[in-house]
Structure formats: C-alpha cells, structure tokens
C-alpha cells in the first residue's frame, strides 16, 4: 500500500474537506491516515487550528485510539485476532508463530518494511475462527500453513 | 437470462473463499447475485441456486469444486456431494424464528426492489400513519429490550427522548460490535442494511429526531462500505424523507461500544465514559436528547411496526420478549447465527444446535456475552437464554455471543486475559478499571507461578469487588464476571499451580 509523501497543502485540503462536519476530529484523522499512512506530527497543530482545539486536546485524541499510527506501517498490514473466540481455536499459538516467523513483536514492522503485525480484538469472524485480516481482506479458518502462505505472499 | 445463482458477500464467507468461488463461476460465464450470509458458517461458502421448486443450496464450496458442480447440473439443482437441499430445510435454519434476520442471506443487500419484495418498508409505512406517542407505545408494548447487552426497554428510552423538548434531537446507532463471539450487527449491516435504515427512520419519526449517525467499528470495513452505499441508495430513492443519516467510523477502541463513550467519540473527543446522569436521552450527542440503540434493536423495530407489538411479544419468556439473534462461535462444530425466541437453554444451543466442539473434544466452558461475560461450565447448561436467568447465575447474555472452549482450555489464562483486555481497553477515567485491571494481571500471574495461592486468590476476589462496585461503566464493572466465574467453576486451574523450582 503506497502512501503519499507528506505535503502540507495536501494535509490542509484534507482537513478543510472535513472541518465543517460536526465532531470532525475522527473523520479528519482517518482521512489523513488514509493518505499518509499515519497521522503525521506536523498535521496535529494544523487540525487543532482548524477545529479551534488545543494541541494537547488533539494529542489526547490521537493517542487514545489504537488505530491511529504515528509512523506509516509496512507495505502489508497483517492483523491477527487475539480475542476469545479465536483463542478457543488456537489463536495464541498462531500469534506466537507469526511473531517468530517475522522476527517482530506485536505492533512492530519487519526491518525490511515488508509486514506490520497488529493485534486486533475481534473481526466479527468468530464462527470461522481463527481469523485475520491482511491489507483489509478478511481471512478465516486460519492455520499455520495458511498463515505461512499469507506471510509468504506479502512481499 | 436472469441471474439465478446466489453467493454470499458477507465478510466471514469471503474470509473462507466466497469471492474465489464467485470468480470461478464468472470465469465459466455464470454471474451471481451477491447476498449476505444465512449464518450457517460451517457451510460457507454456501451457494444457492433458484430452481422451479425453490432455492437449492450447496456447500461448503471451494473454487475447485465449481467445474464439477456445473457438470453435475448445479444450475438445475442437480445432484452433487455438496448438495444440501433447500436451505430452509437444513435443521439449523429450520429450528429458527427469523424476524430480524428474515431477509439476511436471501436478498441482494443493496436492492431496494428485493427489500420491498421481501416485506421491507411495511413498518415505516405504518409508522407514517401513526402519532409519535403511538409508535413509541407500540415499541414499548412489544417488550423489545436493548440488544447491545444492557437489556434496557427500548420503548422507555424512546419515550424519554420524545418527552424531552429540544430543537435538535439525534438517533445514534451503536454499531461498535466489539465483543468477541458476536457478529450479528455485522451480518445485518452487510446483508440487510435497509432494515437498519428503516428502523432508524422510524425512531426519528417517533421521537422527533431529524439526524442520525451509525457509529461502525473500523474492524468492519465491508459493513461501512455497504451501509454507506445503502444510505446513498435510500436517500436517492426518497426513502429517508427529511431524515439525515450518516456513517461514522470508530478507531479501534473497544470502550466506544459503551454508549456515553461512543457519544464522546462521535463528538470528536477521546472515547471516555461520561458519568450518568444526565442520561443520553436527556443530554446525549452534543448535549441534545439522543436515542442510542444497538444495531439489532433498531433493525428489529420494522418487524414490530409491521406485524404489531403483540406478534413480537408472543415470542420469548418472562421479561425477555421476542427473538434474539444468538451467535454460536469459537470452538463449535456448527457455528453461526441462530435467531430464536428467548427461553432455549444453553445446553440445547451448544450441544444440539451447535453440535459440540469443532475439535471433537468435550466442551469444558462457554463464555456467554462477550469478554465481559461469565464462563459457564456444563453444570449450568440448563440455564435458559433469558436476561434474568443469566443474571440470577452471575452471568449475562450481553449481545448474544456464545464462545465455546474444549477441555484443553486453561481457565486461569482466560481470567488473566479478561484483566489484560480490560487494561488494554480501559478509557482511563476511573481508577478501579484503569489501575485495577493491571493489578489483576499481576496477581493472576502470581497465582500462575504458584505463589501464595490462597492469599492471592482472596486478593483477586477483593479486587473484583472493587472493580464491580467502583467502576463507572460495564468495562470495569463486568470484567469480574469472567474472572470470578473462572475461579468459582474451575478452581482446579488456580489451585493446582506449582511454585517454580528454586534454582
């Protein structure tokens, strides 16, 4: 997933496009992250200015939500479900396998920038557990070989 | 030639290959209508073919089965090893009472024509002829209670908003379905989005609210897309009247499923819980009177208005009226959505309907009601699915999810996860939840290491009481349910821990 390079004017446009909505903070943060892969630090004062909030308030919002990144992810994002329904079908073992195989911990990105491994607590695919999502695509009935194939295909 | 092949586009069906199956048919010149899922997930991808004698289902279909299916005359309902017969005759579906999910898995989710043909908009049409108070009374009389988990009577909420004068009121749909083991909201939004829209428009009419928001969790991208498309279609067709409806996307915070936290998030703030009172019905979104209901509550309103309160109320038991979409999940042979009248027992659901575990091992524990729900042992399988019956046994039905575990489960580990999850997801506003959850993980780790088991067990019980009575919302307040039930019903997993050998 290639993201755009930081450009102040582009960020300004994104912010302006949503600033008129009621409760605009989350729509703006989502739109920025979609463009840049994260919520760039430089955008924070710009949003604060547009919404008449303090930078501290905005920092509080950005850091509250698990979704918002401070740096862009790897080329592929693998989300593995760690919640109970998936646990009952062996998700803990799969998670450990993914970490070992990629050589990273939860929330980290491989050194070559290939894969980011994110924990997720439920994808709503609980009757086809264990579940994952790779680059937004849902995957169910995961097992070690299917997981290996996903990681293998993510180049 | 009309399209007679139906393949689900539901996320869970796609997760097990439904798109690949649709592509394999398309490559052979056969197009499909993409539907929601019927909710028989162990049979997904389950395809259906329209024949003169009705629909015939096949499943689970893999892309490599497609050539053989076509050779066997699948389009005429031909015989094949994967042929399941009429979907309505499959016992799992036959035993159900589908009111809220009447159309899900059958219709094209974005076809207004399908929606109308299968009974859509009847409730709204009737509501348009009624006085506001009469609509609210109908919902109250139906006995519908909040399907998000709290079980508060929906009609009472609506009445409070109706009776609170304001220039602006809101209808907010809580689609932040974060409980593990639940997927009913997702299925409706992906499979029959117009029923939710219809329910929200009725809620707007009934309470005098002109604006609505559907707050969908970001983990459900397909639901977001389908809902947005459905709103656009309904708007262009004039189905919304003056009601202004928008989708908002969450950002990965479980606690935003708590209603006041969700409202904060919609306002663009940290998703921190508000102290109540004031109730959202008095001062909700942007300080205005707000109806905030779960997806299933709102999606059940149209059938209540269409068929009348008595029709709905006649299903169920005690104070739990109507039907409940129960979700069978985790280590279960026949996992899926089972909508039925309240009163069915936990044992029937797990053993008979669900067919026991997927692994074939004995069932040891089931967690009912999501990460904040209690773990029940087999001894409690006679508990009927009913709000009060579960409360009486220190459990909860929550949003109707049942997660099954086999005999390899370590209940201390599950108790620890409950505390860990609470620590990860705590909004941080109240101390018992913010600090207590982390202390809980530490104390359970000490028990796991065989350290002063009796003293630490007493400590965890004390801590659970602090969480239960001292937390602002259900996250901290209910985390003790899984912890205490694990301790109470599966004590061996706690007491048998051996201290580590001294080096």
Largest sheet of chain B: 5 strands, mixed
- Helix % of chain B is 40-55%
Overall CATH architecture of the largest domain in chain B: 3-Layer(aba) Sandwich
Strand order of the largest sheet of chain A: 2-1-3-4
Give the strand content of chain B.
15-25%
Strand line-up across the major sheet of chain B? 2-1-3-4-5
The top level CATH class name of the largest domain in chain B: Alpha Beta
Portion in helices of chain A: 40-55%
Poorly predicted runs of chain B are: none
Question: What value does the Rg of chain B take, in angstroms?
Answer: 23 Å
The CATH C-level name of the largest domain in chain A is: Alpha Beta
Helix and strand content put the structural class of chain A at: alpha+beta
What is the CATH superfamily classification of the largest domain in chain A?
Answer: Glutaredoxin
What features would you highlight for this structure?
heterodimer, A: about 160 residues, alpha+beta, Glutaredoxin, 2 domains, 4-stranded mixed beta sheet, elongated, B: about 500 residues, alpha/beta, Rossmann fold, Ubiquitin-like (UB roll), 4 domains, 5-stranded mixed beta sheet, 22 helices, 16 strands, globular
How would you describe what is shown here?
The complex is a heterodimer of chains A (155) and B (503). With 155 residues, chain A is of the alpha+beta class. Chain A is built from 7 helices and 4 strands; from the N terminus they run H-H-H-H-E-H-H-E-E-E-H. Chain A has helices at 8-18, 25-36, 43-51, 55-64, 84-87, 91-102, 144-153; strands at residues 76-81, 115-120, 132-134, 137-139. Chain B has 503 residues and is α/β, with parallel strands linked by helices. Chain B has 4 domains: 5-94, Glutaredoxin (3-Layer(aba) Sandwich); 112-313, Rossmann fold (3-Layer(aba) Sandwich); 316-406, Ubiquitin-like (UB roll) (Roll), CATH 3.10.20.600; 411-495, Up-down Bundle (de novo design (two linked rop proteins)), CATH 1.20.1440. In chain B, 41% of the residues lie in helices and 15% in strands. In chain B, strands 2-1-3-4-5 form a 5-stranded mixed beta sheet, with helices on one face. Chain B has a 5-stranded mixed beta sheet with strand order 13-12-16-14-15. The longest helix of chain B has 18 residues, at 431-448. Chain B is globular and about 70 Å long. The interface between A and B is large, with 43 and 62 residues.
